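Quick question, first post here. What does this chain look like in 3D?
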Amino acid sequence: MNSTPPKQVDYLIVGQGIAGTILAHFLQKSGCSIHVIDNANPRSSTAVAAGLINPVTGRHFVKSWRVEEFLPTAVETYRELERKFDTKLYHSRNIVRAIFNAGEQNEWLARTTLPGYDRFVVDPIAAEEFDGFVTEVYDFIEINEGAKVDVGRLIEIFRNDLKAKAMFTEGQFDYDLLRFNEEEIEYEGIVAKKVIFCEGAQVKKNPFFNYLPFLGDKGEILIVKIPDSGFEKILKHKVYLIPTGEKDTYWVGATMQRDFKTVEPTQKAQDELVRKLEKVLTVPFEIIDHQAAVRPTVRDRRPFIGPHPEMPALFLFNGMGSKGTSLVPFWAKHTVQHLLENTRLDKEVDIQKYFRYFEHQEL
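> Answer (accepted):
Ran it through. Tokens below.
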């Protein structure tokens, strides 16, 4: 009786959120053969992500980490995927941010005088579209080069493309079914040179990489409708209000919870978001949806990238956190260069610095 020969690929990718998708894109672009496995987890962070790109963040108006490097790669990558799939994915949207007192305004003005900030400053601002909809505040500022990426749409069309080419398997990955040979790994009839785990928060259940100090934050968001609003820009007030692309419909959020008992949406979080939104808006709104997810966060807010300490055929690409839309394209490109050309991983993301955790685990 003849058995079906195994499928040979260069890389088996586990997880098809934003990290797995963009990494798969760069591997394919480099001529590598791939196969992707994903369990379509509705509580993955990608499933509910806003797709926000924000170059200046935080209460102290700090430029995002290495934004001058990350932003051009992100724009180029999403534009490239738009051309590949003939669909709009990247929406440039300035960010209008509420200022609540003179101290905040002075801090912002001081920031704008620092090198590298001028490109992100819009002066004078144009926030008239929010007039009559948003409560009065001390002032507004406007940040240039913000964007909204249709992450959900990207994941969907990329997955459909993989399915059409027989490069995708939907299902839960079973770590016990991995079989290690001298130079290859076999999994359920697929033989690969390397397995790359892009599992997001599910990495905590991965027996090969669960030694790493992942945290995992639960976030909850609302999708709301504000009749006759038509906002084009992103508003950062008590919460983010981000146009989804559907008429008068917005992503609102997000909450952040480190200690949580359920991954499901909760009434407590919905009430919190509603209270904040009621303080922002002067008009009625309708809740369309309420979603929750767990983000793969890391204490120092740096991604985790690199091979397993003892099994180099197993590789991790994870920990992009809440800024994954901005970070993933750069680090995916960086990772593919490392895999194909044996270049060094950037020390800020290389998990080699955490190998002591693995050694301690083995004791």
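The first strand starts at residue 7 and ends at 14.
The domain at 7-47+152-213+300-362 is CATH 3.50.50.60 (FAD/NAD(P)-binding domain).
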